[in-house]
Design brief:
This protein is an alpha/beta fold and about 525 residues long. It has four domains: about 1-140, no CATH class; about 140-240, no CATH class; about 240-275, no CATH class; about 310-525, no CATH class. It is about 40% helix and about 10% strand. The protein contains 23 helices and 15 strands. The strands form six sheets. It has a four-stranded mixed beta sheet with strand order 10-11-13-12. Strand 3 (about 70) and strand 4 (about 75-80) form a beta hairpin. The longest helix has 24 residues, at about 115-140. The radius of gyration is 26 Å and the shape is globular.
Amino acid sequence: MQFIQPILWQDAIDKIGQKSLIGSALSSEEWSEIPLELRERAFFSSTIENVRFLQRARDGITEFLSSAVETLPDGQKALATGSRQQFIKQMQDFAIAEGMGPLDAHDAGTIKDITSEGRLGLIFDVQTQSAEDYGYWKQGMDPDVLNEFPAQRFIREREVKQPRPIHQQNEGVVRLKSDLEFWLGMNSPAIGGFGVPWGPWGFGSGMGVEDADRDEAEQLGLLKPGDTVQPVDRDFNDKLQASTQGLDQDMVAKLKQAFGDQVVFNDEENMVAWSGKPAGSSAPPSPAPAPAAIPAAPSTPAAPATLDDVLKQLGLDAKANATADDMIALREQLKEQNPVNQAQVIKSIKGDQPAGALTEANIRKNVQEFLDFIPPAKVHHLPTLKISVTKSQDYIGQYSTKGEVQFSHDFLAHDPDRFRKNAFHELAHWLHREGDQAYRDAIRKHFEARTAGEKVVNLKPYAAKGKKDKWYEPYAGKIYHFETTPEGLEIPTRYLEWLTMTPAEQAILWNDPDFRETMKIVLQGLF
C-alpha cells in the first residue's frame, strides 16, 4: 500500500481551504466546459450535490496536507487523516451514513459510485497532487528561489501505457518558470490537461518537473548573466479573476441554470465569482439527456447494431479526444439490458478458496461484470465455465479449452484489481476461442493486416514470441503456432482489459488512433 508523506506548505493548504464548496449534478464533461477561472476556485466532484460530503472531503484532505492531529478516546494523539486509505475509509463511512451511492445498482463499485475505493481514491489523488504541485510552483515564484532556480525541466516521473505525444516531444525540455505559454501548453485542456501552469499535467500523464539552476538556464540561452526573472504568479492569478467578457450568453445562462445562487454576476464590472451560498438555493439544473440505448437484439435475422452506430450516437466517431464521461457512456452502451446471469454459465468453482480476491462470491461478481457487456446470443452456445483456484506460480491465470479457467492463488488472492483484470483476460479467451467463427476470422485478418511483413521477435519483457507492431501492450502481439498460420489470440484479451480500466485511463488510450483501430474490431465482436 502506498502512503504519501504529508507536506507542510501553507500555500498548498490554503489552495484547498480557500476553494468554494460547489455541489452540482454536472458530469465531468460538463464541468470541463465551465470557465477555468471558476473551476480553479471550486471544490467539486462530478455529479455530487451533497455539500456536507464535499465539506468533509475538503476537511479530510486539508487535515492530511497539514498533518493535523486529533485526540483519540484513550487520550492518544494521532493524525486526523494520516493516509490515502484512511481518507477513503472515512469518506466511505460518511457517504454511506448520508445515504449516498450509485443510482443504478449496476454501477456499484465503479467510478460512478461515490462510495467506491476507485472514486474516492481519484478525489484524493487529484486534490492532493494539485495542492502539492501548486505549492511547489508558488514557492518557485519566490524572488530569491527564482533567482537561483529560474527554470524547470519537464520530466517523466513514471511510465504510462499511453503517453501524450506532446509530452513525449518535450520530455527533458528546460524552460523558464515564467514561460506561461509553454507550461500552459503542457497542461492544455485540448490534451486532457487542467489549464494551469503547474501539475498534475492531466489525468495519468506520468509527468512532473524539477528545478534547473541559473547556470544551466544561462548555458541554454534562456537568460543572460545578470538578468532578473520576474515572478508570474500574480499575473496568472489576476487572469483567474473570471471576467464575463468573452463568455457567450449561452454560457452565462448555463452557469445561472447549473449553479443558481452559488454563482454571482457583477454586470457593472463584468465579473463572475462563487457567492459562498450553499447548493440548493435555487431550482436544480435540468438533468443531462441520457445517452441513447443500444437497440435490443432483434428476434429476426435483421442486421444488428454496429459499434459504429454506438460511437456515432456518442459523437466519438468524429471526436478523438474523448472525455472520461464519454468512456463511461460507452461502457454503459455496451451493457445489455438483460445480461446472462453468471449462475447460468459457471458449472463449478473448486480449489482453495482463500479470503480476499478469490472468494467464490468475488469470482462470481467478476464473471457477472464481464457478462454484462456480452449479448446473450454470444454466450448461450459457449461451453459452461469450470473455474479452479490453484497454488501454481507458473501462471497468473490461464484458459485451457472447453471453458476451463485456472486462477493462481499466489498471484491474485490479495490483489482485487489485478484479479478483476485477469478475469476479463481469461474470459475473453473463452469468448474468442469458443465463440463464433466470424469473430475469430475478423481478429485473425486484423492481426495479419497490422503485422504484414513483420518478423517474429521476442516480446520483452515476456517470455513470448510474436509481432511487436504498435499494440498498446506488447503481449497483444503474441503468436500461437507462429510457424504455421499466425493468429493473435491475445488481441481480444489485452484489449478487453480496457473495460476494467478507470475512465481516465480509457480516455488516454482511446485518444490513440492505433488503439482505436484495434479496439473497434475487438468491440465489434460484442454485437
